Amino acid sequence: MLPLALQRQIASPDHTSQRDRSLAETTFQAMNTFVRSIEDQPDWQISGPLIRSRECTIYKACSVGAGLELAVKSYLAGINPMASVKQAEALSNCRDTMVGKEKKYAVPEMHAYDRHQGFLAMEWVAGRSLHYNLWTLSNKEQSLFRVGRWLRVFHEASGIAGVEEKSAKYLGIVEKRIGDHPARLSAEGPDHALFVSACECLRRAVELELSFEAPHAVSHGDFTPFNLMISKERVVGLDIWGTQRKPILDDLIRMMVYLTLAYPLLTRQQRIDSSNGFHQRISPLLDGYGLDLIEPDSLHFKIALLSEYLRRWLIIARRSRTFVEKAFDSYQLAQVKKLIVPLLDSIR
Ligand SMILES: Nc1ncnc2c1ncn2[C@@H]1O[C@H](COP(=O)(O)OP(=O)(O)O)[C@@H](O)[C@H]1O
Ligand SMILES: [Mg+2]
């Protein structure tokens, strides 16, 4: 007898073809066996898919008998075979330091993981994402401050230590993206000249400062507004990829670029600091992290920031989207161009 949720799932309009129906049935049966391996209770209810993304789908599994509410992340076969392995490793690395309901800055507790099926079961995290908070009337500065704190606690969990880093890495990130589809660079449109001169500026800056000493820690790897859940009591980081030590600024800069490009309610009518292109309202993120370890005026910070802006520019310009999404992408591209200009001026 299939769980009720599975019967609903199979009947849902999402899965009309025979092939999809049997795929959903197989996934649910495998997931049912998987959650029963955590605790063998007859009352497991699996619902979903609740969220679908490029690489995975999220289901919710609950059992009153086991007293558990879990998020089960199911990785799609063949896209990134190492994804579940990396996330499981990243979560278990901070089990001692950031797991537990009493932790104000936490990661979800992992309950089980099946590499072959690509299933990862973790604590279901209540709350709203930072992304949600930034699009609503909530206190955005406070959310950013707490998210900055979260990152500091996360970095400290693996120990922060100064290491020499090569600036060419940041140029390499952009060159690799261009190299993936060089023929399509012309599709970057009428502002192509700005893109080319920004790359040139990045190249020159890298030559000026071939390497720099920077604090390193195990990185989050995808520190974006979608991957932080915020509630009154806790901030919980999701979707942790990083198992490698990297400059702490890599995580911060990924977030800062997202914040300045994709959140009009956050950055509207705010003064842009001409030295680094930041909006004043981004600063709670840095304050929360602690300014003792960040040098936003340094050349290496600007190199990393410019590299991330150019990387996002290429991603946004090249993705295929629906009509409405395209309008928002145009807004983001206009933002990149607006923000890159003062940044280039401050590097030159
Ligand atoms: N443990 C969890 N508890 C509650 N919601 C979650 C949990 N894990 C993921 N989600 C939700 O699913 C979304 C996608 O999960 P995520 O792990 O970020 O996968 P992706 O790699 O697709 O970004 C998250 O942005 C969040 O809204
Ligand atoms: Mg995510």
How big a fraction of the residues is strand? 15-25%
Oligomer: single chain
The main β sheet shows up as: 5 strands, antiparallel
Q: Can you list the strand order of the major beta sheet?
A: 1-2-3-6-5
Word description of this protein:
The chain has 2 domains: 4-124, Phosphorylase Kinase, domain 1 (2-Layer Sandwich), CATH 3.30.200; 129-347, Aminoglycoside phosphotransferase (APH), C-terminal lobe (Aminoglycoside 3'-phosphotransferase, Chain: A, domain 2). 49% of the residues lie in helices and 18% in strands. The chain contains 13 helices and 12 strands. The strands form 3 sheets. Strands 1-2-3-6-5 form a 5-stranded antiparallel β-sheet, sandwiched between helices. Strands 4-11-10-7 form a 4-stranded mixed β-sheet. Strand 1 and strand 2 (56-63) form a beta hairpin. Helix 7 (168-180) packs antiparallel against helix 8. The radius of gyration is 22 Å and the shape is globular. The chain binds adenosine-5'-diphosphate and magnesium ion (MG). Magnesium ion binds next to loops.
